[in-house]
């Protein structure tokens, strides 16, 4: 993957890079950015969804809660995580961890890479829509800083349920949209083969979304994972300092105003 600083890419190329198998995994990102990560499991209701990785970690010696979507690396893990598409138990687990973080005053960092919520029969039977809506409702009023980073795909409500933070950043090789380019093309033109054209029309790239003030910034990427980790750490440090200056009331008010404008 080539940095935006080196070469201007088309929307279709960014989509391909966002889906690339070269993308860092959730665990690689967590290990590279945070220390002393302790994973926590289960939604305390029905299951433990492998598509959501969450727990407590240290960031610059400060306790934080980290939640990430996990696509997996091996074929077995990808099947187990539905290729990074969470089920209701995954969203309920993430909300449980966010409410726990609020109780103990820990900031939350979410790392998002999902094509969307799992659309299978089991997910619908177990309340997929309600689980996503509950996340949106509850996260909108938690009294702690929430920073979201989309590092690959950011698809529909499945991504928004974890990307509704006070600050939203995107990796330069990532996408954020209401549905996939293939789905958009199939609906609009009845021809999914026009996905590349749809990607451009949808304005799903970080640059376009930054221009529209939907996101707050773009994380530069390179082949060096250490450089990416360093860039993310620098961004998180600044954002946490800024957000922690706000009172709980100001934090909630600004977060809700942010999303109401859309």
From TrEMBL:
Keyword Ligase listed: no
GO biological process, one term: malonyl-CoA biosynthetic process
Pathway: Lipid metabolism; malonyl-CoA biosynthesis; malonyl-CoA from acetyl-CoA: step 1/1
MF term (GO), any: acetyl-CoA carboxylase activity
Any single Gene Ontology cellular-component annotation: acetyl-CoA carboxylase complex
SUPFAM superfamilies: ClpP/crotonase
Documented EC number(s): 2.1.3.15
Domain CoA carboxyltransferase C-terminal: 1-242
Domain of life where this protein originates: Bacteria
InterPro entries: Acetyl_CoA_COase_a_su, ClpP/crotonase-like_dom_sf, COA_CT_C
Catalytic activity of the protein: N(6)-carboxybiotinyl-L-lysyl-[protein] + acetyl-CoA = N(6)-biotinyl-L-lysyl-[protein] + malonyl-CoA
Enzyme class: transferase
Alphabetized UniProt keyword annotations: ATP-binding, Fatty acid biosynthesis, Fatty acid metabolism, Lipid biosynthesis, Lipid metabolism, Nucleotide-binding, Transferase
UniProt-listed NCBIfam families: AccA_sub
Protein's name according to its UniProt entry: acetyl-CoA carboxytransferase
Taxonomic lineage from the root: Bacteria, Bacillati, Bacillota, Bacilli, Lactobacillales
